[in-house]
Amino acid sequence: MYKRVFSIAVIAACVFLYMIPAFCQEDITSLLDPAFPKHERPAAVFAHDAHNEKAGIEDCAVCHHVWEDGKIVEGESSEDQKCSDCHAVKPEAGKTGLRNAYHKLCTDCHVKEENGPVSCAGCHPKSGAAPAEH
Ligand code: HEC
Ligand code: HEC
Ligand code: HEC
Ligand code: HEC
Prior knowledge:
The protein is mainly alpha-helical.
């Protein structure tokens, strides 16, 4: 009985979450961050869930990090926030700007893993990934 109520609650929660696009990371197939006042490049390819599965990344905080005193805080994550909430397009001195934040996070790992695109066109294909839905 409890189990049944629980699954109904879970299904209801999922249906509910589906109705709020802002929380559906599985719907993300590309990134075109609206925080940039204008875009020089087409959207970057990034199929959120499929990418992370293929790349074998289980810890959300690998990308959605929390920092304190100049270090990443272990065991905490910030997936409820946008990169642009913490990374300004025009950062203060010594802070990582939004464009660098994306490039460092994405490209550094591809270089380190020797896997995943590292060229401009590899991530920002001319054909243009479908615009992100946020
Ligand atoms: C490889 C990097 C990466 C990993 C790993 C990752 N994410 Fe994300 N995620 C992103 C990026 C980039 C965005 C877009 C952020 C933005 O728009 O500021 C995003 C967006 C989101 C969003 C917001 C969706 C929206 O429409 O605004 C949620 C929720 C989310 N991720 C949850 C998760 C969860 C939960 C995990 C772990 C299971 C996870 N992410 C792992 C990179 C990652
Ligand atoms: C809750 C705030 C917060 C969020 C959300 C956040 N960051 Fe950060 N991030 C920081 C802080 C603080 C630093 C350290 C100071 C700095 O470099 O600006 C940092 C540093 C970085 C660095 C530099 C790392 C290094 O070793 O120098 C990169 C790259 C980065 N963030 C990328 C991202 C990306 C991409 C996202 C979105 C997926 C994101 N961050 C979301 C707060 C945040
Ligand atoms: C922690 C490591 C890591 C981070 C961070 C990361 N990637 Fe990847 N990425 C990979 C690996 C590994 C692959 C190769 C996966 C495979 O196909 O085996 C990959 C593959 C890709 C591909 C090829 C297509 C695909 O989905 O397999 C694209 C496009 C891509 N990454 C974009 C991004 C973008 C954009 C970001 C930043 C928002 C990012 N990646 C962050 C590790 C990472
Ligand atoms: C590993 C993937 C990756 C690679 C390689 C990459 N980018 Fe990006 N880039 C991104 C992501 C993700 C964003 C943030 C989403 C967006 O485009 O709004 C971004 C944002 C940008 C932006 C700011 C937004 C805009 O369109 O004006 C510029 C400019 C840019 N990239 C240029 C380049 C250039 C030039 C290169 C090659 C030297 C390059 N990128 C290589 C993933 C990548």
